DNA sequence: AAATCAATACCGAACGTTCGTTCGACAATA
DNA sequence: TATTGTCGAACGAACGTTCGGTATTGATTT
């Protein structure tokens, strides 16, 4: 991400044959296939077929498999960074900040599902993956800080270790990528009936108040 | 693979050179490598090297990459099935059953980490994977039933959809595989300071009572 | 006790396939 | 004519797997 020159919004060919596919469109298609088959198990032939192109034509539009992964996970990381940028502009009590970040992060995850899914599945096998994982760790760290602040302010329970709580909370949020499919009929056959806002509400409620029936 | 005659429990050589590696030992090594590099990204050469064997010798002891995955995820599924078998022998109120299954499932996950991790990462690309996913779905279904029962008994809150709650709860538990490493210094550089019982306690507490500071 | 045998552990080399990627040529447009 | 989209064919590398042969052992036979 040192040079961000390649990804304007819609790179349109100014001469020659009109471009049928923008870079972003292709990344969207690619991410979807990665999401279904897994990155390693997806071949360039798979990606080309899903884009309606031959392998060689596909290579005319993209620079390679690893760069495609890079573009996709960068989309997720940019969106997640955005959550904390919004948050920095607001002033609120620690627990309310935590709740809002929890809510917004969940919303971003649902909105950018394929990209976030790819990000969460990285194993750090290549340099591209390791760079992305480093950016992801910085997101985690900012979240852990929010938990710490809320705890220092006495607004959340203090009998559980903050780092552990942070991991469990965002583990719950991130687990959405395992079954949520934006379309009503999931391709993996899982399927669900939850609307986005219902999911976001359940996440925040469960995280803060737990599952027990309230006394009163 | 049409003939599955080769795999008894502990096939011990009755003659000739003593076997230095049992099937289970090899599966343990293999699962660890799968866990670190990811199944697809792991080559048979990687597995042989981790076992201290050449590729061809390694093939003398195992039947192939896919069968290794099968053995590994079966270990996880057997352990998870065991949790529900124990549970069936006990009689208790629904919410206590749910709490104990939550606790035992977390314990099993920590104890059988590499195997459960592999199970959770399956994408269903091959027949072996699809069979394992089907067994996994039956585990999920039994868990969902427990949530339903506790809700019907009025012991957990009824304002959240049971299927959604089930998924979020076990999403939180399953997310442990993303960072937990049994050894103090994780190979992925994550590292943590939590003991197993502390983690189990936090999971159950967070799930049932939530993060909010208790009033009183 | 020595020789023999069957079974197993082990290895280097190679197989056929699939992978990501490149290349040269042709078609279409400005 | 310059530029871009498209394509078939091929590249070297890496993959999972197989094979022929050798080394080492325990049991059996002499």
TrEMBL record, chains A, B:
Top-level taxonomic group: Bacteria
Q: Which UniProt keywords apply?
A: DNA-binding, Transcription, Transcription regulation
Spell out the coiled coil positions from the record: none
Q: Which GO terms describe its molecular function?
A: DNA-binding transcription factor activity; transcription cis-regulatory region binding
Sequence ranges assigned to domain HTH tetR-type in this UniProt record:
20-80
Give the matching PROSITE patterns.
HTH_TETR_2
Annotated DNA-binding ranges? 43-62
Protein name as it appears in the record: TetR family transcriptional regulator
